[in-house]
Specification:
Length: about 120
């Protein structure tokens, strides 16, 4: 079993910063893409940022130049540094990872439980 656990969410004023962390644990042979999605009530889930095993990154246009995604492969951890936060960034943020649990197994997708980010105006 693979488990993703997020931390770092909270309440912050507009213009402030937060850093989200997500660590994968359990049966992990290799990890591929890791990233963050978010969902605001009444809206669809959207990609925030993703990072490949080769450290290539992709960001939603709405967060470019404000958010930075990074990863620590040895710790199976992905981070999201969020700066210049806006009220519209308020959402439940989910960690995502593609993981091969065992040698010879294909990639499986895993999701965290979510961490709430609330930005007050």
């Amino acid at each position: 079993q693979v488990r993703l656990v997020e931390s770092g969410g909270g309440l912050v004023q507009a213009g402030g910063s937060l850093r989200l962390s997500c660590t994968a644990s359990g049966s992990i042979f290799r990890s591929n893409d890791m990233g963050w999605y978010r969902r605001d009530p009444g809206k669809q889930r959207e990609l925030v940022a993703i990072i490949t095993s080769g450290d290539n990154t992709n960001y939603a246009d709405s967060v470019k130049d404000r958010f930075t995604i990074s990863r620590e492969n040895a710790e199976n951890t992905v981070y999201l540094q969020m700066n210049s936060l806006k009220p519209e960034d308020t959402a439940l943020y989910y960690c995502y990872a593609q993981i091969a649990p065992r040698l010879g197994s294909g990639w499986s997708e895993y999701w965290g439980q979510g961490t709430q980010v609330t930005v007050s105006s």
